């Protein structure tokens, strides 16, 4: 992932963000893998109801693995740090990693949700109008609050293992754990553009990188800030996972 400048908390229309409480686990993703046959989501699936261009686009079909075996191979992107196993074992409660943006978008659509917009994600992480420095508040990160480079430094940790680091509305692991894909393309000046003055802005204009948020088990404390922006290419990272959002 490549870093970008911090931003202020964007305006969104939700009073309480509709993000899932937990990052997607190996066990949840396994159910998706078990039914996967290469069929892409229906056009428009996984859309934000009020933001055009956020549903599945048939132009993305070719970015998905052709077979279940190909999808499973993608999830084995790091012999030392991948959380996926081909058969269920002790890893089921760990956050899934090695998931590309297109696979994340397809999963959330299949799961009855969608990828969150960057604005929704930051609203949750910053506690909305509380504009928190970190999801839990202003205290400096430590091993009781997040899984990051200077604490556990491991992907092999059950989601929700740091309850003291929960956000305002109860979401766990918004800082540390896995980088989480947002729908948006990364634009370093996005929040100074006119488009971003709207409620729940979302950048649907193609760019080199998609947005990932929240930092991961392998990064230092600076990246755990709620306003820290990072972009990543569509690839399989051993510190990259996802969290879905739900429409009201």
Give a structural overview:
With 248 residues, the protein is mostly loops. The protein has four helices and five strands. The protein has helices at 26-35, 68-74, 101-110, 118-125, and strands at 2-4, 179-185, 210-213, 229-232, 240-241. Strands 1-4-3-2-5 form a five-stranded mixed β-sheet. The two termini are 31 Å apart. Residues 3-9 have low confidence and may be disordered.
Beta-strand level of the residues, as a percent range? 5-15%
Q: Which strands sit side by side, in order, in the main sheet?
A: 1-4-3-2-5
Order of helices and strands: EHHHHEEEE
How many helices in DSSP terms?
4
Count of distinct strands? 5
Query: Main sheet, how many strands, which sense, barrel?
Result: 5 strands, mixed
Distance between the termini: 31 Å
Query: What coarse outline follows from CA principal-axis ratios?
Result: globular
Structural class: little secondary structure
In summary, what is this structure?
The chain has 248 residues and is low in regular secondary structure.
Please render the helix and strand layout as text:
Elements: E1 2-4, H1 26-35, H2 68-74, H3 101-110, H4 118-125, E2 179-185, E3 210-213, E4 229-232, E5 240-241
Parallel strand pairs: 2-5
Antiparallel strand pairs: 1-4, 2-3, 3-4
Salient structural properties:
8% strand; 248 residues; disordered N terminus; 14% helix; little secondary structure; 4 helices; 5 strands; 5-stranded mixed beta sheet
């Amino acid at each position: 992932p490549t870093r970008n400048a911090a931003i202020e908390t964007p305006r969104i229309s939700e009073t309480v963000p509709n993000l899932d409480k937990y990052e997607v686990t190996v066990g949840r993703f396994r159910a998706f893998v078990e039914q996967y046959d290469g069929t892409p989501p229906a056009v428009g699936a996984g859309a934000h109801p009020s933001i055009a261009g956020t549903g599945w686009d048939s132009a993305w079909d070719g970015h998905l693995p052709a077979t279940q075996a190909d999808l499973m191979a993608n999830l084995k992107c790091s012999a030392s740090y991948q959380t996926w196993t081909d058969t269920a074992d002790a890893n089921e409660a760990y956050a899934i990693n090695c998931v590309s943006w297109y696979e994340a978008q397809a999963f959330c659509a299949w799961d009855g949700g969608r990828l969150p917009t960057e604005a929704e994600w930051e609203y949750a992480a910053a506690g909305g109008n509380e504009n928190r420095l970190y999801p839990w508040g202003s205290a400096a990160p430590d091993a009781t609050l997040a899984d990051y480079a200077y604490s556990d430094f491991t992907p092999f940790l059950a989601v929700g293992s740091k309850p003291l680091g929960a956000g305002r509305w109860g979401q766990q692991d918004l800082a540390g754990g896995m980088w989480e894909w947002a729908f948006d393309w990364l634009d370093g000046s996005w929040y100074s553009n006119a488009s971003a003055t709207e409620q729940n802005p979302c950048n649907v204009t193609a760019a080199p990188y998609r947005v990932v948020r929240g930092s991961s088990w392998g990064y230092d404390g600076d990246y755990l800030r709620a306003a820290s922006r990072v972009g990543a290419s569509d690839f399989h990272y051993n510190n990259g996972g996802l969290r879905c959002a739900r429409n009201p």
